[in-house]
Amino acid sequence: MQTSFASLASPRSVAANPSGPHCVLLAGSARGGTSWALKVLDSHPAIHGCHEPFYQLSHNEELQSLYNRVKTGQGTAADAEAMTRQLMKACPETQKPPFFPKNFLKTPALLRSMAWMMARACKPLASTFSHLATGDLNEQHCIVIKNRPFPMLERILETIHADAIILLRHPCGVVSSWLRGVRMGVMHPSSAEVDTVWGRYVNYLEPRGISEADLRRMSPAGVLAVNWLVDRILFRQFKQSSVIKTRVLVYENAVRNPNAEWSKVFEWLHLPFDPAVESFLNESSRPGFDVRTLLGKKYSYFSVQRGEHSPLESWRHELTPDEIREIMTIVMPHFPVEEYWPDALS
Prior knowledge:
alpha/beta, 5-stranded parallel β-sheet, 18 helices, disordered N terminus
């Protein structure tokens, strides 16, 4: 029997530090719309958005011991507070434009944008950006952490008392965008390489009857669909936790009916649907300039501004009928696709 991902439970109001901010993970597949979703959430004056901070923490020699204790479930209450403090610290890798007015910061968004651009051009200036963009967050604030799921991530969430918003995007939409990124040279091709995927996910694939031989018969689109499927398996670990509360957001619904869908998300977060959020939703829903495009095609590919083509339907003409058929054949035996996308096969 399939287990639905949906949950109507609200996130807890108690953080790892009762006087500190509440943490929420925004989890989604690569090319699943998480960059845009993070910025929608980050546009709220009371939210501090973080872009993949766990990668930065795991590669910081001074913080590796803390990170490893928390990741393996051995973190103490003091470790949880220390991890939360690290998440509050701004750096050019974990905070990215566009920047927004915050009720916990005195520096204007434009100044932070300029400091970020200078820090990207000259690393020693990163401390200046951090000083300008790090605020004193309390229990009235929320830290939203955008991260693709990885093994044992649920232990980190449990330690810091975080909840999770799970962003689901149609597998064909994810694969199509991923393949485009590989062709552009901005997405690493290893995610479509059989040896890498099998070595990384064998423990998740074998129990579901997917063998190495099966992988080798797949096209790159099929291998990327397997990545999408593993992400769904990891999401279930959040759902099965007795500590983590989850909220599912379907990307296509959030794009079609942004105000209605995001209002529900902010209600779940116990935050008002601020006019700044509505303003960003309106702005990002039409083609526009993103300051990151000045840094090259990699940053334009990850832009949170809508392009000329609809992200909902572009995969229908970017993928071949055989690729679409292969993706759905891989995914549908293991995930209730029609529950979230009733027109999945139309």
